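Module 6 notes. Inverse folding takes a fixed backbone as the condition and produces residue identities as the prediction. Think of it as a translation problem where the source language is geometry and the target language is the twenty amino acids. Below is one complete input and output pair. Work through it position by position during the lab.
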């Protein structure tokens, strides 16, 4: 069931002011009280519905699963503007909002429901970037940070692809569907697609193109154009290291534990794995894991055995 908190007089990173923002969220597992709190930040096309019959991460979060709802209180906010059940349009120019703004909003939302600290802060892709932003804002309020299939800043490659998506969304006759088809080729890999479709046809139509069209139609049915513009733009704003912020120095001082999980075939977040190894060598509280998969960025939604094996060490 969706719940709501109201945030008033919010100042954006660009110094513009928003008088009222409705922040919707869901709670799973144990009621808010004495049990450890896990905050889950959703990805670009995700939402707060992380568990249950239609939960997009039910293979990870459920009763007697890795994130066990018998033990934890799991909370998930909807990123304002994500259009989940058409309940939270942000009513701003989509290019005015950053992941830092969303991180600040989520902390304000937690304060509204009387939560001061988190046992774990976890998110994949865009949600992982927002998790980095939240942890850097208030490291003493987070015990375990778990960013998955993401990075702590948007690379030029990510920014360039966000720009192409934005062009499609503003210029195409069928913007959401076409943008989604392009995005799917970033979320998977040539090896994954070639292995799956093998030049198969149904009549005169290649099966791979039929699959892309299906994903385009599916997203069009549940995502407004404004929502897709907003979520896509946010992806390119991830950046905790602006203004000469030194992540290595931060990790040395911070008490939070970081468990970064990446995918070796990720075409979207092609991170410098050597950099992660250096961070791990320099900081006892930083652990780095790699999911081995041919499926690319979406492997965090596909390789559940590997992901759960990693998460089992954390939870």
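Target side of the pair, the amino acids:
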């Amino acid at each position: 069931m969706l719940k709501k908190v109201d945030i008033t007089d919010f100042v954006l990173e660009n110094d513009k002011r928003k008088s009222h923002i409705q922040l919707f969220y869901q709670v799973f597992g144990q009621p808010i009280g004495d049990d450890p709190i896990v905050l889950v930040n959703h990805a670009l096309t995700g939402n707060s519905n992380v568990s249950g019959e239609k939960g997009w991460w039910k293979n990870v979060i459920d009763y007697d699963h890795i994130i066990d709802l018998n033990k934890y209180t799991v909370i998930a906010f909807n990123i304002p503007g994500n259009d989940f059940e058409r309940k939270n349009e942000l009513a701003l120019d989509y290019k005015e909002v950053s992941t830092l703004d969303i991180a600040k909003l989520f902390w304000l939302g937690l304060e509204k429901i009387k939560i001061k600290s988190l046992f774990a802060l976890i998110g994949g892709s865009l949600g992982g970037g927002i998790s980095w932003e939240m942890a850097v804002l208030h490291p003493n309020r987070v015990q375990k940070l778990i960013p998955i299939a993401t990075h702590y800043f948007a690379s030029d490659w990510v920014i360039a692809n966000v720009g192409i998506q934005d062009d499609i969304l503003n210029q195409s006759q069928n913007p959401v569907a076409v943008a989604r088809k392009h995005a799917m080729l970033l979320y998977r890999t040539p090896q994954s697609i070639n292995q799956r479709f093998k030049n198969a046809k149904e009549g005169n139509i290649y099966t791979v193109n039929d699959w892309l069209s299906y994903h385009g139609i599916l997203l069009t049915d549940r995502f407004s154009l404004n929502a897709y513009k907003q979520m896509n733009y946010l992806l390119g704003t991830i950046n905790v290291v602006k203004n000469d912020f030194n992540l290595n120095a931060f990790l040395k001082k911070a008490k939070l534990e970081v468990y970064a999980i990446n995918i070796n075939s990720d075409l979207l977040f092609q991170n410098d794995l050597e950099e992660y190894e250096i961070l791990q060598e320099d900081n006892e509280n930083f652990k780095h894991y790699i999911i081995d998969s041919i499926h690319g960025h979406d492997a965090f939604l596909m390789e559940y055995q590997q992901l759960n094996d990693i998460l089992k060490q954390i939870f």
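Reference fact for the lab report: Residues 181 and 212 are 5 Å apart (CA to CA).
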